[in-house]
Amino acid sequence: MSLKKKKQLDAQVVEARRQHRRKSLIMIKRNWLLYLVLLPAVLYIATFCYAPMYGLQIAFRNFRIADGIVGSEWAGLKWFNRFFNTPRFWLILKNTLTISLYSLAVSFPLPIALALILNNVRNAKYKKFAQTITYMPHFISTVVLVGMMSVFFSPRSGVVNTVLGLLGIEPIYFMGTPEYFSHMYAWSGVWQTMGWNSIIYMAALAGVDPSLHEAAMIDGANKIKRVIHIDLPTIVPTISILLIMNFGKVMSVGYEKVYLMQNDLNASTSEIISTYVYKMGVLNQQYSYSTAINLFNNVINFLLVVTMNKVVKKLSGSGLW
Amino acid sequence: MNTKKIKHSWDDRIFDWICNIFLFLFIVVVFYPLWFVLMASFSDPVYVNNGSILIIPKGFTLEGYQMVFGDSKVWFGYLNTIIYTVCGTIFGTIVTVLGGYVLSRKDLVGRDIIMKLMVFTMYFSGGTIPLYLVVQKLGLLNTRTVLIVLGSVSVYNLIIVRSFMASTIPDELHDAATIDGCGNGNFIVRVVLPLSKAVIAVMVLYIAVAHWNSYFNALMYVTDSNKMPLQLYLREILVLSSSLANSFDVDPELQEKMQHMSMIIKYSMIVVSTGPILCVYPFIQKYFVKGVMIGSVKG
To answer: Measured in whole angstroms, how far is the alpha carbon of residue A252 from the centre of its chain?
Structure first.
């Protein structure tokens, strides 16, 4: 009896699958134009994101351009071992984490403060003006930003050292002193992104129900209390998600700005994984070695993001995917 | 309004004051460096070099700008950047807006798997060298094409468009159009595009700013100095402190003058390269902000 039932069920499943497939085929045929329209985006991702992943295998080979990717002989974990055993490994790892965590620590809280303050400004024109000004640096290119830093902080005629001179302090070569590198990196980042990053909190604050404020006012709560007990709790979910996501990115400090800020004098604190990858690969042409370091970094990044996303999901019920 | 009639207590007023003071400080800190660059670019090099200008320009002069505009490499860089920005933005916007719309369609078979494959690339990449090898294999090294195409499409932008489309173009609209005999092509041209002007504007601006400001792709893939974008030339002048191209002149007098003027040339360069964006942006600010808003509501 039960065997017959099972067979019947199986037949039903097979039939359902067949129907589903037929339906899918019809839908694909009907929407052929959509696939055509999507094709350029898919091709782009395939060429510039997935094709390089095929090339990742050179991290495990002794790659030589003449031999091609597949033609080069296997090298096992040689390049990874070389990286872990290089005396600079710990220094580079330390620099990467220092720069990344320090800049997260200073550039994360300030946009929140700015958003809470902007939200309390009642004069609409003043608020708009403040927003326009504070968003501006977002549009400045990295090259110009680093250029501005090098002229402002120049020991000979930079404005910062001029002001320090007025206070009787000897000129300091900020861009060339290893101890200052992470400060320079982090605070210039604050300057550039503070306004722009506050937008997302402003959006969350706009969702506060005004009746909450009215009720609190009737109960005699002053503004500070209302900010602490109404505004802040509203944006806590946004804050926690962004914070966790940012922790997922600690290993991926962008090389664009660090590379521009580097010079021979500050190399001991400014060399990070991504700039090392660029130098080894492009300037020294050690393709396999560079790719191995890059792969190591990417895998750690990926694991961090996946872990952090799990944490977000558990806390808020919705993650990035 | 009720709230206006309620008398503000002293602690509220103190709080308002503190807010205003902090906001003022934020504005000054952000604005002063920008103002300083603008002011110094118009000032006499003598005062710029000895650091005696702090708030207002001294000894008005346009010499810095004359030097910058007298350099043919600046013009070439500008022209190249405009070419890359215009072509890249057109290409990127078309691909992104159309692709984003298709990805928002729930009746697209295989949508989930395509989406997953795309999102994966946001968190994992082949890396610098493998990408370089791909570009090389395609024969795109040292071409303008690579600077136009690379960086024009991003999964992040595709997701922004997709979220926007999913919330502004309901399925019912498409169903109704289908019943009326409107095919996908017609629907995209007559319904989708007119309804998504806002997101198209956002994409144009995002992609254009990214192209205008990018330097690393040019550094990686292009060695031909004729194809250099402005940012790469700016790097030479501002960060590596090379002299302007016309300073290779053997004339020692001119050489000395260039040395003397190097600071105000840098300031003028910054204004020339960044000025256009900063002047235009306040008028289209709402589109930029809109992009962040759409991006924050994940699809």
So the answer is: 7
C-beta atoms of B130 and A113 within 8 A:
no
> Measured between beta carbons, which residues in chain B are less than 8 angstroms from residue A125?
none
Structural domain for A24, as ranges: 20-76
Contacts 24+ apart (CB under 8 A), A54-57: A54/B126, A54/B130, A55/A291, A55/B126, A55/B129, A55/B130, A55/B131, A55/B133, A55/B134, A56/A291, A56/A295, A56/B126, A56/B127, A56/B130
Quote the pLDDT of residue A242: 85
pLDDT digits (tens, 9 = 90+) for B240-264: 877 665 555 556 676 677 777 888 8
Any idea what the CATH number is for the domain that residue A120 is in?
A: 1.10.3720.10
Report domain extents, chain B: 2-69+244-284, 72-227
Q: How many CB atoms lie within 10 A of CB B121?
A: 18
How far apart are alpha carbons B64 and B75 in whole angstroms?
15
* All residues at 6 or more sequence positions from A213 whose CB lies less than 8 Å from its CB, including other chains: A226, A230
SS3 content of chain B, % helix, strand, coil (to 5): 75, 0, 25
Q: How large is the greatest C-alpha to C-alpha distance in chain B, in angstroms?
A: 80
Residue B197 has pLDDT above 50, yes or no: yes
Interface contacts A/B by beta carbons within 8 Å: 272
Treating both helix axes as pointing N-terminal to C-terminal, what angle do A88-107 and A78-85 enclose, rounded to 10 degrees?
Answer: 70
Q: How confident is the model at residue B8 (pLDDT cuts 50, 70, 90)?
A: low
Which CATH class for the B72-227 domain? mainly alpha
pLDDT at res. A65: 83
| Best CA proximity match to A58, nearest among A44, A78, A32 | A78
Sign, Cα dihedral of A101, A107, A108, A113: positive
Residues A105, A56: one domain?
Answer: no
Quote the distance between the C-alpha of residue A142 and its chain's center: 15
Interface contact flag, B2 A37, Cβ < 8 Å? no
Question: Are the beta carbons of B126 and A38 separated by less than 8 Å?
Answer: no
- Same structural domain, A113 and A215: yes
End-to-end Cα spacing for chain B: 38
For residues A221 and A72, give the distance between their C-alpha atoms in angstroms, rounded to a whole number: 72
pLDDT-based confidence at B51, cuts 50/70/90?
confident
pLDDT 10s digits, A177-223: 999 999 999 999 999 999 999 998 998 898 888 898 889 888 888 88
Count up the domains in chain A and report the number. Answer: 2
Pick from B6, B19, B94: CB nearest A217: B6
Contacts for A92 with CB less than 8 Å, ≥ 6 apart = A271, A272, A273, A276
* B-chain residues near A34 (CB < 8 A): 102, 105, 108, 184
CA distance A204 to B40: 39
Considering the domain architecture, whether residues A95 and A54 belong to the same structural domain is answered as no
DSSP element (H, E) containing A114: helix A109-120
For the segment A81-86, the average pLDDT, to the nearest whole number, is 93
